[in-house]
Amino acid sequence: MTEFEGKVLADLRVLKSQMDQLMGIGQPGRLTQLEERVERHERSVQRLKGFTTAIGALVTLIHVAINYLRR
């Protein structure tokens, strides 16, 4: 085996090891964990949007009530 072939095989072993770490070997890998974190973050953002919308609607109703009671 030439030096080049040895280098290629060593690089392929490193690549295989990194892919196993990324994808996981029967267990959740980094990619799966990252997807779960993104999903949790998206749920949090959606909840915050809903909460902000509800507060905005409440403040608007309070302003309308104040204007109505002034007259």
Main attributes of the structure:
71 residues, mainly alpha, 87% helix
Question: How would you explain this protein's 3D organization?
Answer:
The chain has helices at 3-23, 30-70. The N and C termini lie far apart (94 Å). The chain contains 2 helices and no strands. It has 71 residues and is mainly α.
Strand content: under 5%
Question: Distance between termini?
Answer: 94 Å
Number of helices: 2
- Structural shape: rod-shaped
Mean pLDDT: 90
Provide the succession of SSEs: HH
Briefly, what is this?
The chain is mainly alpha-helical and 71 residues long. The protein has two helices and no strands.
SSE blueprint and pairings:
Blueprint: H1 3-23, H2 30-70
